[in-house]
Structures are given as structure tokens and as C-alpha cells.
Fold these 4 entries.
Entry 1:
Amino acid sequence: MGVPLDLDEESLKAVRERFERLHIAWTENNRVQALFPRGASILPNPRGTARGFAIERDGHVLYCLPGVPSEMEPMFRDSVAPDVRRRFPLAGAIRMRSLHVVGMVESKVDEIVRDLMDPARNPTMAITVSGGVVTLHLLARTARADGGDRLLDEMERDARARLGDRVYGRDGETLQAAVVRLLRESKQTLATAESCTGGLLAAAVTDVPGSSDVFLEGAVTYSNDAKARTLGVPVDLIRAHGAVSREVAAAMAEGAARRAGASIGVGITGVAGPGGGTAEKPVGLVFVALHAAGRTDVSELRLGGERERIRERATRIALDRVRCHVERSR
């Protein structure tokens, strides 16, 4: 920038205090975190020691932030984005919305909504996929913000009409958050019994704040003895059909619901690999059972991929089974 670096005493004090609070020994080379180009505006960093800065030169503005995402992202949101909007106001308004789709591959979603992705349209639509969830990104450009919302509402109604209950949520809502919300709205409760997923389903649900309103209990019954002792799965049933079977998954779901007094019980058993598979029961074979209102439904899954991917996909499918059941029973 062609300017010297100046020491900012306030930043230096903040760095020292953070080191003391975290019981980290101070070394003089950390003073560099308080040096900024002369004339720069300092940007606060509530999650770390290294502050950012903005500096203007020849009609351009340069923003410098630490690269750690957990620090950079909130700094961009709270300091950089508002400053950019102030300096460079847009003509008109841009409104964005996202819809999340589960249980349908990206190519199928693309086929169903392809005409909505015409770049000449307003709003426009784009598709991304991550972790088995397909996301539709809607963007409207209008002279007024309320006009953008109206356009997005129209496109969302169209997309939902085409995709049906495959759309589970909007914007930042996760699949597990949608499940918790639906359970709470319908005044239903959930209990889980897991084998091959090792508690991933219970962990996903309890990641949601307030899930204690609807999630009663989760059991990881990895061994046959645990299935019998904890869930009441008959030993003869396990001997006759094996731990990885439609019958045992159903008994696990029923045992979980009965044990916790829950409206809904879910049982998961399978072969996650890499070993343990046979010709009759290969790696990737997973049974997901859902018990509710005196009825038990079991899904047989044939999942590909490594152990972690099989476990994650089984968990996501189980969550979606609960979501669909609650949606349809309301």
C-alpha cells in the first residue's frame, strides 16, 4: 500500500488480555497482530486475536481478514458486508431463498425443475448438493424488496408443487431441525434404538436446540445381548433371522418406543463394513424400522460407499422416514 505500519494500542491490549485469559505465554512477536497500515479502519474479531482492517486507495477498498473460517465468516457478515452495502449501494433489491430436498438425486431434481433454471427468468434458480441434500437457490431482482418476496413466493409454490414432500425445509433449516419442529408441532415424541449407526441418529436429533421437548431416549444396542436385555428383542428372533434383519429392526423400534413411552420408535440395524458382510447380507445392507400407532414399517436399504458414508446415509434416511411419517399423520 506504500504506507508504514502503525501499532494500535487498543488492539495490542486486546491481544494481551486474550493471551492472559487463555493462559498462553506472551511473546513479543505477537505484537505483529496489532500492526496495521496507516489510515486503515480496524475490524473487530470477537472470536480470535487477529483483527482485520479495511483501507481505501485510488477509489478501491481492500479488506483483510484472518483466514480461519470460524473467525473470518462472522467478521465478513458483521463488518465487511455492511460496509460494502454502505459504500456501494445497489440499484433495486436482491432477495434470496433456498429450499432443501432429500430423498431424491440431483439429476432427478434437475429434470423436474429444469425450466425454472432458465437464466432469462426472474427469479432465477440454481442447484447444489451436499451430504445427500439437494438445495435449490432462488434469487429475485426487483426495484423493491417486497416485490422480490412476492416473486420468490410464486417460484417456491411452483417448486413445492412439483417436488411434493421431498422438500423438507427452507434456508438454514437442517433435516433434523425440521424433524424436531414437526414433532413439536404435532405433539409427538421420539425414541431410537441403533446398532450399526452407533448413536448417530440420536446425536443428530439432539444437536437441535430444544430437542429435549420431543426426544425421550436413545439406545445404542450393538451386541445381540444388548438388543435382548435393553430392548426386549426375543433371543429366538435373533437366532432365527440374525441381528441384521427386517424382524430384528422392527423389534428394536417397538422396544425403543415401549421402553421410553414414545409416540414413535426407530430401530436401525445393518452391516456398515468394511468386514462382516456375506453373500446373503452384504456390506451396505441396512434395515430402518419405524413404529408408531401400533404399526411397524421396515425399509430395506442397499447403501454403497465406505463405512462412514453408509452410517451417515442410514441416519439421514431414518430422519427422513420420521419426517414423512409425522407430515402425513398430522
Entry 2:
Amino acid sequence: MEFRSIAYLYDSLQGVAREIKGGLQVVSEEDLRDDCIDILIHNAVFNSNEEVKKTTRLVIKQLASSVGIRSASIQGLYDAMGRGECKGFTVPAVNIRGLTYDTARALFRSAKKHDAGAFIFEIAKSEIGYTDQRPAEYTACVIAAAIKENWKGPVFIQGDHFQVNAKNFAKDKDAEVTSLKDLIKEAIDADFYNIDIDASTVVDLSKPSVPQQQEPNFATTAILTNYIRANEPAGVIISVGGEIGEVGGKNSTEEELCAFMEGFNKALGSGKKGISKISIQTGTSHGGVPMPDGTIAKVKVDFDTIEKLSVIARKTYGLAGAVQHGASTLPDDAFDIFPKRTAAEVHLATGFQNMVYDSASFPPALKEEIYAYLKDKCADEKKAGDTEEQFIYKTRKKGFGPFKRKFWDMDEKLKLKIGKELEARFDLLFDKLNCKGTNAYVKQWVG
């Protein structure tokens, strides 16, 4: 049902919520969680009238606030981890590229079962583009999912890999920084209160010393961190992440970490709130490496590096620890090692995409349509020697944007089955990452 006007939108809330000064007050949570929130989020994503779409997103936020749901920064929890007052688990950060509302619902269901509070929803700069999900839409989907699943408390939404484009940076540094500031402002306005800056792409290995190599990275990260601080809402300290090693490159070192942090803190200025965590390279790559038959090559993660740099990050710089990217395609027996080696956060993306596409419940006709589209529109991305399986594996992430409506309009029974499969995966991750019961920590340190 598409709302024909803003008045029609508010009429749909009769018996569910009433208008009060400054927003809306829910009068029937049961009715809200029934069909109402499903209709609202559909309009927040697909309504043809931009003003109605924008207002529907605001309504979802107001309804969420009324029932005790809010977007929040994880900074307080990470500060406690940095002080050693909170430890023993690794926070999963989940990138959702498609079926966002349904996947977020599955994650909330799993979290409720395990009394988990320390988990993050995120979307990367690149994903915002090819999945056709601007920050305001992404937030609306996550918050609506929280309402649907009767979640209570803070929700952590993160801008992942807000990355500097090295070619654009070399051509016009100021323009590239300005483009990232624009994205950061859009994200903050959409209640992204956790943002990971990635300027590791401009590390200059041609320089003779490590501090000189890291200088473009830490200087740019400091500029963007100061911009975040100047634009964060009153009462909110946004959790900012930095990165010292481009994922897929050589493994990070203690010398690089210290060079980055010393340079960053100096460039940031005294008395300024810095970063809360540091992303490092330990041998993984985003999405994994597809073999000719489409399977994923086994990767050996350097857990010694994770532990060593996490310890230094906490003890010397007060950070929560090191962050592992590109982990979702690792074998199951790898995940319980992350908390044992004191990793602060682990980023998970492609594995969930794979679960959706490869599910027995995913409609074969839709998959064929998407793959035909990719073969036509992304043909120039096929490298010499790539098999069709490798090409499809590497490009099918780009099917989420053009086919967003068809993903959303899949048969509800099929989506429910896929959601149950995703929920089981989240169950495993909460167990392996030792995140069960972390709701108590979140209540203590975030509120």
C-alpha cells in the first residue's frame, strides 16, 4: 500500500500512535508490530513521492523512540574495553547488502535469544552505491526491524570503509576530502553514530620511513575526525575508527600502528576525542578469493598480529583494540579465536550475501535474471582467465541495487525461510564471538 500523501501516512497511524509535542507516542505496540511497520518501511524505501518517503522515515524514527529504541554510539563500551573494564568478546559488525529489513530482523531475533547487545549494523561507502541504499534508508530499515522484533535499547549503525579514493586523492586532495565530508554529514544526519574512516589507501610506501609512509593516512584521518566532532549531535560522541593497512595487502606491523597513532594524535590536536579502534590487515581479503569452481580459497589469518596490535592499541593508546575486516567467509572454527586473541571488532559481509543467493529458498528464476543482467552490464569486469563462476561470485553483489524491489517483493514464505537460515548463522556467531549476555555491558556503558 503506497501512501498517496503525508496526510494519508498519518491517517494510517490511527489506533497505533497519537501525535504529541515533538513527535509521536505509540498507543498500541502490538498493532505497530503487526502490519503497520511493514507498510511504513515499504513506503520509506519505495514510495514514489520523495517528501512522503522522507516523512515516513521520520515517523519510523519517532515511533521507535516512543517504544525505547534509539540509534546510538558504541563509544562508551569501547572506552571501557580500552580501560580493560570490559573484555572477553569480539563485536560483530554486519554489512547488509540486500533484504535489509528481513536480515536485520533475523539479527535482532538472534540477539534477543542470546541477550546480546554488542553488535553493529553497517554499510560501506562502496555498498551504498551498488546496493542503492543511502544512509537514511538503511537506518530506517534497521530501526523498523528493531520495532518489528520488539527490540528495546540502543542500536549501533555504522558507516564502514568511508574510504579515500587514492586516484582522486592524487588528482585533487581537497576535492576528495570534501566528498568524504559530504558523505559523513549525510550519514550523521541519518543517525550513523559510528563511522570508520579508511585513508589507508593513501599510505605512501615510496617514502623512506614508516611515519612518512603513514603521514597521508593519519593526516587525512585527523581532518575527517575533527569534521565528525564538529558535526556530531549534542550529547553524542561518535565512535570513529581508523585503518593502517589496506585489506588484501601486507600484514600490519607494530611500527605502523605506533607511527599512525603518534602522528594522528598530534595532527588531531590536544584535548580532542580521537578514534576508538584501529583496523589492521592480517591476511584476509574482502569477499574472499574465489577459485575457478566458485568455491572460496582457504585463508590463514595472522592471529598473532591481531593479539599483539590489540594489546598495544589498548595499553598504549586506550583504544578498544584491533578490528578484523573481510572475515565472513572464514571457516567456522576461526571465529572463536577472535575473542581469545582480544580482537575488538570483526566485520562480516559477503558470507551473508552468499547465504541469500545460495539458499535453496532463493527463487531460481530471479537468480537467473540477476546473473543475466550481470553478464550484460558487468562484462568489462571479467578478467582474463576468470571462469564464469569466478565472474559471477565477484559481481553478484551488484545485483542488489538494480533488483532491490524484486528482492523485497519475494514470496513472504521464502523470505521467512532465508531469514531463519540467517538467524541460525547469527546464533553461531554470537556463540563463537562470545557475545552472549553482552546486553548487560551495553546497558552499563552505553545506557
Entry 3:
Amino acid sequence: MTTRFHLTAMRPRDPGEPGRTASTLELFFDLVFVVAVSIAAVQLHHALTENHIVDGLTSYALVFFAIWWAWMNFTWFATSFGTDDWLYRVLTFVQMAGVLVLAAGIEPAYVDRDYVVVVAGYVIMRIAMVAQWLRASRSAGEQRRTTQIYAGGIAFVQVLWLLWLIIPSGAAAIIGFIVLAGAELAVPVVAERQGNTPWHPHHITERYGLFTLILLGESLLASSNAIIEALHSDQELAPLISIAILTFIATAALWWIYFWPPHHRAIGSLATSLRYGYVHYFVFAAAGAFSAGIEVEIDALTHHSELTETQASFTVTIPIAVFILGIWWIAIRDNADRVVNIVVPAGALLVLLDPVIPIPFALTAVFLIAIVVVLVVRPPLPDSNPTTPLDRNDL
């Protein structure tokens, strides 16, 4: 129903709606977020290359949380209440503007530990989200209380984020961040206990898959950079071309592993949905860090890094292992037989052996290809209960 202001009532969407796919607005939204991810990965690359490992990883974890959490909240809101009218689009654009503000503050966050601009961009995104939830509460029906808790909880935590800026940088600031991140994560848990929002399994997992594709594309860019660097270097030509080829193989393998399981089965209950959504922080962060690791490896090969070759290799293999283990836990494990459930996590752990052998990065590609071969010959288990409605109350 359209009102006189040309607005559509923001009623809960049908979780079984046939043919539900990501909208062009959602795809546009993802692209803006990838700008922030790309900048964060570039700054991580610089920090690691300069051997500022702890500081670089800490800043990356903090900044990436802001990026991931704002993206994830909008994604789950859209699957339940998206209307695509003009006000919904405008509020979405406000969130996108907040992403750009956040992106502008990433370098100061890394270099000077100045998180003012990052927090400002984050709060802009979250306040727009509060407006979305308040609007949804007017037509949410049985989910009215849930939407109000979302709006109130998000707004309250934003006040705390602004107060967090007063805390001097150091251990106290890190502890404060952890507390506030925990508060953000708690809001959906508390809200959904009042009445579950109607997420669409295929739509929500498609959204995660599309974002993963864009993040893996960052790794392909790193592979291209290796070739470009090789064209300007005579001495390191062979190693750089090898890195480019192996990066492409690894990225293709990660794509294969990610999309092997039927992801929509992984969010059949509130508990599994929370696990799926929250663990994706590590999956997404690992995908972004993988591209940074490739750049670090290129710097090490061209003698522009303060890291040893072994340390540089770990910047590649650790993200790969985290990515695989994360997807195995939330999507592959429950849809695979014993062989797959042995090979996938074992292969991820074996990837970590690569830096301690005298064959840079090559063993990682071998292990990844072996995992893919096993996945090809052993497809996912059939859905044992495809017609049973979703049970969302077993948290």
C-alpha cells in the first residue's frame, strides 16, 4: 500500500517469497563498502611491510568491525523489511555516505590512532539504521517490539561510541572497544528473542556470497599487481610471475570452497543464523587480509619489506587458513561427509606449513587444489528435510 507521500508500508517480507534476489540498490551498497575494505587492506599492507604487525592487525580488526557490522545490519534488515521506496533509498544513501566518511578516517586510525573520523562515519551509518528500524516499527505487526529494541539498542550504543573517543589510546581504549563491540553484537540477540524478524534464507546467503566475490576480487587485483611489478623488474621476474599465478589459483580455490555448500541451509534457526552472520566477520576480514598479504609478499620478493620471507609468507597463509576454517565451520561441516570434514580443516591447517618450507607459496596452492578435488568427487549431502518450515526459536 502506497501513502500520499509515495511511501510503501514497511511490513515484514515473506521469508518464502519465490525468486527473491539482491536488488541493484543492495549491489550499489556493497560497492561502497568495498571502497572502505580496500583502503583498510592497503593500510594493513603498509603496516605489515614496515613490520608494525601488532599495531597493523589491531587497527585492521577495529576498522573492519565497523565496516562489517554496519554492512551486516543493513543486509539483515533489508531481507526482512526492504521496500525500495524513495525514503528507504535515501536512508540507504545516508549509510553509504557514512561509509565514505569512515573510509576517509582509516589512514589516521592506522597512522595516528585517531578514530574520530572512523567513529563519525560509523555513527552516521548507524543513526540511519535507527531511522529504518523506527520506520519499520510502524507496520511491523508482531515484530513491532523487536524493531523497537533494535532501534533503541543501536541508538544507545552509538552514544557510547562517541564517549569512547574520550578514552586515551592504549589498553583502556582496546578494552572499551571490546565492550562496545560486544554490546553491538548483543542487540540482535536481545531483539530477536522478542520475536524473530522474517529473514529470507536464499536472499541473505546470496548477499553474503556477492560480498565475498567482491572481496576475493581484491586478491585478483593483487595478482595483477604482481604481474605489473614483474614487468618493471628483471631480477625478480620469475618469482613475481609465480606469485601472480599462484594467487589466481588460490583465489579460485577459495571461491570454489566458499560456494560448495548450500549456504541457505546454514541459517535455519536463530542460533545458526547468528553463528553464520557473526563468524563471517573472520571470513570477510580474512578475504580482505589475503589481498594485503599478497602485496606484502610482492614487497618481500622485491626487497621493499622489513619482514623476513617466512613472515611475509605467513601474511598470505594465515588469512587463507582462517577463511577456509570459518566457512567449514558455518556452512560445510553440516553438509559434508566424514571425508570432506577431515580434508577441509586438515588442508587449512597444512596451508600454515608453507612458510617454513623452501618453496614460497607453492605448497599452499597444492593443498587448496587437493581440497577442491575432494569437493568435486564428494558433493554436499542431500537435504534430509527440504520441506520443513524454518524453526527459528532454538537459540
Entry 4:
Amino acid sequence: MYSLKKRITRNLIINMVLVMSGLSVIIYFGMQQILQDYVLTRLQDDSESLISAVSQDSNLDWNVNPSQMSKFYNRVKSGHYYHLAVDSQTISSRSLFDVTMPEPVGNLSNPGYYLADGPGQEIWLIWYQQVSKNNQLISIRVAEDITPLRRQLLQYTIYVVILMAITTTMLIYLQRRTLQHSFAVFEMLRQNITSIRHKETEKIGISLPGEVIPLVNEIEILVDQLRNRISRNRHAIGNLAHELKRPLQLLSLQLENDGDGEPSRPLQDIRAIIERELRRAKISGSQNAGGKFDVNEELPFLIEVLSNIYPLVKINFENPGSISSLDLDRDDMLELIGNLLDNGCKYASQTVDLQISCSTNRVKIIVDDDGKGIKESEMAEIKLRGVRLDESKQGHGLGLDICWDIVNSYHGSLSFSASPKGGLRVVIELPLNT
């Protein structure tokens, strides 16, 4: 079983990290391109200024007028450099000092630019251009050290990444709160469905998002259908038992008058089945299915019904922890305890003891009778198979198959042993909040 909230949160974190990482990369390279374009624009302007500043003197030597160029080119290692080549003559800025301008690798278009390593850790962006002046071809290279700008760009990128990380964390936190608020509706829905199951309410009765309402409507329809179906089945079984009881009595009297006065064994079995179903109908009480099991309200009624059926047997109930109610289905518990007490009363001599105790997450039910008990082989058969021994022989086991079904539905345990009172002890343990 996986958590939908955790899955959404995990996918959100992954998506946010991927998006922010991609955005950081785009910002970094985008800003680097913008920075490079800005520097190239400045180099192109300096190149145009250099073309205007270069001229020939009376000796036909080429010179650059320093006053027409930026003062950065006159300061040694200023980070701004130029180099001109005209035939065999070269002119370099004072800023180059003893450094040679890096040559381009391969053929460049005219004009063009390239990156080269400068002295130390410098990285130069070099603008390359060839022009014709006084019928002479002049090669011009203007360079700028972009290392400080790149360092500033890296610092700016780090700040942006930190800001994005803080923003991402805040967005994830806000999204988690939104998810918790949204999923709180499902917890409210679960509690209301539990209330419906325990018959504390009839409808959900809370404000729900439009996406959940169709699901809630289907759940309510299903609950109503199951409740009505169970009620109809129990009512039909009770009615059937009542309707069959009178014809069966007439048939039994007729057979006794026509025969030797002893009803046949199959007829006795049919009568026992009908009597059992009638007792189950009495034990269940209300025909409405569901509801939380209230120990103080339901058990006195159940004990009273069984005391009327078995007036010679006394039922003792012990509740050590003063348990008031259990988070278990009312009808399941009435049928389970009712079958156990009915079985104990049928084969008890005088008394049947019922004890219910509750721990942190389990409830324990013990039923003892003072009857003759059962044989060890029969007890082993019940433990291994959970069969109804009364189908084949007289003795304990009436309704035990139903008890096994109820216990298994709750993933509980049912065990049998010899009772200290001399009869049979049945111990049932059921987990709570199932």
C-alpha cells in the first residue's frame, strides 16, 4: 500500500528540483551570452575608434593617436588590449606590455571573435577585423579580459540558486500544507463512514469537494443496499422459521399418531435447525444491520433472551475492565457471543460464565460451561477444521461454524480447551479498529 500524499509530495519535489535546476542552467548560460554580447559591442566600438585613430606619418609609418583611445589601453595589464598589423609593421597597446596577443585558431570570418587564454588565469574575448586604409590592409584585434565579469556572473548565479532553493522550499512547504488540508477531507470522510457503519449517523453530512461527491454518493448507496439486504435476509429467515414451525408441529403430531409415537431423526434435525434460527432472530433483536457494540446495553438483553430459552441455566457475566463499548459490528458480536452462549447453555448443567476483557488493541472473550465437555478427539477436530460437530453427532458445536466465519472476518483467533468448570472453554481474541 502506498501513500498518495507522499507520492504527490515526492513527485512535486522532483519536478521542482528539475525545473529549478534547468532554470538555473538557462539563467547562467543566458546571462553569459548577454555578457559576451555586451563586451563584443564595446570591443566593436573600440575597434571603430582604433580605425579612426590609426594614421601614417611623413615617413609612411603607421601610428595610433593615444588621445583618441580609452585610457585603459595605456595602463599596463589593464584588461583592455589592442594589436594592429600592417604589412610588416605591428602596433600594440601599452597595456599589452611584453605579452603577445593570442592568434586565432583556424580561419575566422571577417569580422569575427574568439576566446583565448591570457596571462595568468585571464580569459580574453578578442574581436578580429580587417579593414583597408590608404590602400593598405590592416588587421585589428581588440581584446578584453572577461574573468572579473565571469566571476561576478558566477556570484550572481549562486545568489539566484540560493534564492531559488529558498523559493522551492517555501513552495514545497506551502504545497504540503495544501495537500494536508485537502487530504483532511478524506479523514473526515473516513470518520463519517465509520459513524454510518456504527449507525451513529445516517448520511455523510459534511461539506465535500465536487470531485469526491460522486464517490461518497456511491458509498452511501452501497451501504444502504447492504444494510437493507442484510435486514431483509434476517427478517426473511425469521419469518421462514416461524412459518415452518407450525406445519412442522402438525407433521410431528401426525407421525406420532400414525407411528410409534417417536418422531424420526430427520424430523428432529429439521426442528433443531428451525429452533436455532428462531433463537438467532431473538438474539439479533433489531432487524437493522450495523452499529457499534455497546456491552452494557446489548449483553443484558442477550442474557435475558437466553435465560428465557434456558430457564434452568444461570449465565454469569464478568466485565473486569468495565468496558462500555467496542469498535466492532453490533450484529457480528451479538451473533458471535449469542452462538457461544447458546451452545454453552444447551450443554451446561447449571451455569455458563462469560468474561470480556480488553487490552490496548484487542478484545478477549471467554465462555465456560459446567457441562460434560467433549472428547479430546472432537476438540482436536474443531481446532483443525472448525467444523460443526452437531451435524454428525450430539455434543458441542451448534453454530460454531458461524463463529469461525465471524472470527476469520476480523482476522482474530478462536481456541477450545477444557473448562475449569468441567465443560468446554471457548476463547476468542479479536483485534480492534479493523
